[in-house]
Amino acid sequence: LYMAGYELYRIARYAEALPLYEQSLAISKEIGNRTREATTIWYIGLLYKDQGDLTEAEQYMSRAMEIAQEIGDSSSEGWREELGLLRAGAGTSLNNLVKKAYAKGEYATALKYLEQLLTLYQKIGDWVGEGTTLNYFAATAYAEGEYATARNYLEQNLKLMRKIKARAEEAAISWNIGLIYKEQGDLTKAEQYISRAVQIAEEIGDSSSEGWRKDLEKLRVEIKSQ
Fold it and tell me: 0.70 exceeded by the pTM?
């Protein structure tokens, strides 16, 4: 079954190859042949990759590598590099799809791709990518007037940036959360976040602090006048 699936895969008859691979995989699991299980899962991943479904491919190929590492199979060494390239490609592909959806104003479509992107970044431990994706989620929610949801995503990103000590990003996110509170009329909360943003920006010598300081002073005057 495995070899029949491989021969069909080799000549790009993917729809016919997949069920044979799946049958081979079921038998491999049943008889405890973990080496064959890993190899079959890997080739199912390659099948999805060749059809352009990089997210599905990544799931199968990463599982194959996990099994290979668990049993000490040397295949995992070569697979690691290929999986890394796949993940980079999947991330780039999904990012491009998000940007295209944004450009068309198709926010529901953008969210679908963002969910896949967030899962990918969390799986591989790419904190910068995860943070950028959370910002996209926040921007999408904000564009649709869902301010509480936008704040929630920004708060998640704020915790992440504090964890990795990315202070410039922490300042910018605090500023954006403050602006959302201000837009909603909660000036006290807005002042807390904006003043924190100004403080961090001044500490790290960020030029944004000059303009932010003036806006903060205006906000404080507005709070006093209420």
Answer: no
Using H for helix, E for strand and C for coil, what is the string for 83-134? Answer: HHHHHHHHHHHHHHHHHHHHHCCCHHHHHHHHHHHHHHHHHHCCHHHHHHHH
Give pLDDT, residue 73: 85
What's the CA gap between 85 and 168, in Å, rounded? Answer: 29
The amino acid present at 77, given as its one-letter code, is E
Q: Please name which of 40, 119, 110 lies closest in space to residue 75, comparing C-alpha atoms.
A: 40
Backbone angles phi, psi at 135, to 5 degrees: -65, -40
88 vs 120: CA distance, rounded Å: 10
Q: How many CB atoms lie within 10 A of CB 96?
A: 11
User: What CA–CA distance (Å, rounded) separates 10 from 119?
Assistant: 30
**What are phi and psi for residue 140, nearest 5 degrees?**
-65, -45
Quick count: other Cβ atoms within 10 Å of Cβ 84?
Answer: 11
Q: Are 15 and 34 in contact (CB under 8 A)?
A: no
23-38 mean pLDDT: 95
DSSP 225: T
* Joined tokens for residue 203: 């500490």
- Contact between 57 and 25 (Cβ < 8 Å): no
- Which of helix, strand or coil describes residue 137? helix
Distance CA 22, CA 24 (A): 5
Beta-carbon count within 10 A of 49 CB: 19
